[in-house]
Design brief:
Blueprint (H helix, E strand, L loop, with lengths): L8 E2 L11 E2 L47 H10 L6 H12 L3 H12 L2 H6 L1 H19 L1
Antiparallel strand pairs: 1-2
Length: about 140
């Protein structure tokens, strides 16, 4: 029987005999595909007033949603999309990747969650992280 990349690996705390839970291998974040809007045909705009000259279609550059983010902020978003199997693995990776403590990393991430440019760049991730943040805040108030 050959093992492929989709076969889950047993976790370290799995019971002998294969009765325990299995943990799938971590997936990297999918690449973001953008449509080249400049290559799309532009239809002429019809005006209700025929006395006005026809409007020439302007060359509109596609807006990069992450344009308002720094390289470090984009790296934090990409890093946050990964999944971690072991509790200490993420903290060690934060120190190795960004050279900051995990406390400082989460301060930067928390500020990034309130940034509209981050929401435009990755709305699903930011929405999920905002829900986690508000859930944890509600649990602290109880």
């Amino acid at each position: 029987m050959s093992a492929d990349a989709t076969t889950p690996e047993p976790s370290a705390d799995a019971r002998p005999g294969g009765v325990g839970a299995t943990v799938p291998t971590p997936r990297s974040a999918p690449s973001i595909e953008t449509a080249d809007e400049a290559a799309l045909p532009v239809e002429p705009v019809e005006t209700a007033d025929e006395s006005l000259p026809p409007v020439e279609s302007a060359h509109v550059q596609p807006v990069d949603p992450a344009a308002g983010l720094t390289e470090r902020e984009r790296a934090i978003l990409a890093f946050e999309q990964q999944w971690w199997r072991h509790a200490g693995a993420k903290e060690q990776a934060v120190r190795d990747t960004f050279g900051v403590s995990s406390t400082r990393y989460y301060q930067l991430l928390n500020g990034l969650l309130d940034n509209p440019a981050a929401l435009a760049a990755d709305p699903v991730l930011i929405g999920r992280l905002r829900r986690l943040r508000s859930s944890r805040a509600r649990n602290r108030r109880r």
